[in-house]
Amino acid sequence: MSQKKVTIQEYITNKVKPVFDQLIARIVIEKPDDVYEWSINWLQNQKSGTQVYQLINHDLSEEEEEEEEVVLELKQQQKQQTRAAVSAEVYGDYNKKEDFKPRFIQKSEAQIERIKKRILNSFMFQALDEKDLNIVLGAMDEKKFQVGEVVIKQGDDGNELYVIDEGRLECYKKFTGLEEEKLLKTYIPGESFGELALLYNAPRAATIKAIDEVTTFALDRETFNNIVKFSAIKKREQMEEILSKIELLQSMDNYERIQLCDVFKEEKHKAGETIINEGEIGDRIYLIIEGELEAYWKGQTEKVYDYKPGDYFGELALLKNTPRQATVIAKTDVVLLYCDFNSFRRLMGPLEEVLKRNTERYEKYLQQ
Questions:
Q1: Domain named Cyclic nucleotide-binding: which ranges (predicted)?
Q2: Which part of the chain has CATH 2.60.120.10?
Q3: Residues 162, 142: Cα–Cα separation, whole Å
Q4: Which of these, 155, 159, 28, lies nearest to 87 by C-alpha position?
């Protein structure tokens, strides 16, 4: 690839795209009659200091919440388009996907196996075929951090995501109107972070600090965008859509739901296999990605529900040690995502605290 092409690609990605992302979102919100004149005025107002639009913002005004919804809606529409849009990674005459040459960092067989074991625990990498998985394994770079070292900082641009191999890190976020950063969660080996900046081309949404000596595997933006991004976005959006339907989790905000996506793991079952049994104590909630299942009461004699992709079951397991109310069996081969009680609690704290944001809903579930 010539130097001219590289320069144009970087210019479009780093200079042009952030401006047009914001402009499109504002146009859809304002719906001006004269789009040209309104756009010129908006661009002139930005000259005094470009405002960086953050997709993930915990403390939004009413107008900003609407803007967030618009960007998410635009993102959904982009999935259905056959050519690249302004707010997608740009491919064109100066940026052809076939020109991509992934980086390769030499590793021992032991390192490769260690990285593979870690990344396959992350939902983002589970959809990769063998060829793409090997490209990602080759591009991963081992990076170590000392106690107290800041790995990523809220508001900075992001060019890598990290998969943790050893050690723990803490995630802090500074909210509007608060002087102190708020501790959101502790990351442990096997978890990943930093993907939001790459998925949505947004600034870092939080600050991550090492609290132990930490070893991570870092994946660069180019490899992520060309190999991982689109399947990861599709799976994350599918998960977010299902999570938004779960009444038990309605009190969570968008940022919390996005974070919750990261703790789900994938499992597959053959037709005829039993997923949960009536009367057993459950500790998992399940989201259905592919396939169909059936729910039965009273020893599999009475079918009470047919599950399809986009449905969920077992959500009460996140609230209390409740016996399963039905037996669920795979009607076809199925792909499920699950989150267990301990993972949810480590990320979000007790679900009771989330539910208490809506007293009526909290009391309803206490009675179940």
A1: 124-245, 248-365
A2: 102-235, 246-366
A3: 9
A4: 28
Closest C-alpha to 119, from 138, 95, 136, 132: 136
* Superfamily covering domain 246-366: Jelly Rolls (2.60.120.10)
**Distance separating alpha carbons of residues 304 and 195, to the nearest angstrom:** 40
Q: What is the rounded CA–CA span in Å between residue 204 and residue 206?
A: 6
Scan for tokens 């976020």, then name that residue.
Answer: 173
pLDDT of residue 3: 47
Band (106; pLDDT cuts 50, 70, 90): very high
DSSP 174: P
Residues 88/12, Cβ–Cβ less than 8 Å: no
DSSP character for 155? T
Q: What is the pLDDT of residues 347-366, one digit of tens each?
A: 766 556 665 555 555 455 55
Consecutive H or E run containing 335 = strand 334-340
Which amino acid, one-letter code, is at 112? I
Q: Return the structure tokens found at 199.
A: 């998925």
Given phi > 0 = left and psi -120 to 50 = alpha, else beta, which region is 293?
beta
Report the candidate in 310, 319, 256, 317 with the shortest Cα–Cα distance to residue 287.
Answer: 310
Position 39, amino acid: S
